[in-house]
Amino acid sequence: MEEEYSIDLYNYTDYNFTHCLNVTMEECRLGPQRDPLSTIIPMTLVYSLILMTGITGNVCTCIVIARNRYMHTATNYYLFSLAISDLLLLILGLPQELYQLWYKYPYIFGEIFCILRGLASEMSTNASILTITAFTVERYVAICHPFRAQTMSHLPRAVKTILCIWIIAALCALPTALQLGIRYEIDDNGQTLWKTALCDIINPFPHVFEISTGLFFVLPIILISVLYVFIGIRLRQASVDSQNESNDNFNHLSEAKMNSRKAVVKMLSK
């Protein structure tokens, strides 16, 4: 076993040594600077299409809601918030992703943008999830508790809810963003390879991703699923009640017709 292991280790080291002789030190450490064109070009087209259609659609949504006063409802305010979060993610995220398709390294945007991009991405994702959850709660109250909804569904309350959503989303995104920074590779002599700059996690916090996943993925999905089950039960019950009411009205109508016919028969028989 020892002999077999030493042969494998020798072959692996020999391969790395041969590979690094033919490329730069940066490529030796991080691999090719870009993927094959057969992969990059289709991905560039897809990303560009998503960027253009996403920006156009969300900007149009914001303009339509903002310029038409009759659309200033609680539901449309939640849609406006979703459009803003999508725009934030598209504008700060996709252009950088497009650049990095062609140049994986070095990262040229600087450490501040690296952190801000991570903050904006995490914040917009959190805000979208919280907005969808809040909107689902609104639908649940409107359908299952209509009388309470008449006193709760006001625009100022929706605006306050959306502001709270964005504040919570930003605060919860900070731990994830503060982990980011510019990472460099070090050569065998201890020298920094400046051309290997990458926007990466350099200050990891324990269990940040697990907590974020639980708060902004698992719990919202469970809550939304439960609320939609209650909504479905309420709608089903309303449908059954409506059907029973229709049957009762039909029976009353049939009974009235029969009574009227009996009265006519009695009059004719006299």
TrEMBL record:
Pfam families referenced in this protein's UniProt entry, alphabetically: 7tm_1
InterPro entries the record matches: GPCR_Rhodpsn, GPCR_Rhodpsn_7TM, NeuromedU_rcpt
SUPFAM superfamilies: Family A G protein-coupled receptor-like (SSF81321)
Membrane association type: Multi-pass membrane protein
Keyword Metal-binding in record: no
Subcellular location: Cell membrane
Domain G-protein coupled receptors family 1 profile as annotated: residue spans: 57-270
Family: Belongs to the G-protein coupled receptor 1 family.
Name of protein: Pyrokinin-1 receptor
Lineage, opening ranks: Eukaryota, Metazoa, Ecdysozoa, Arthropoda, Chelicerata
Gene name of the encoded protein: PK1-R_9
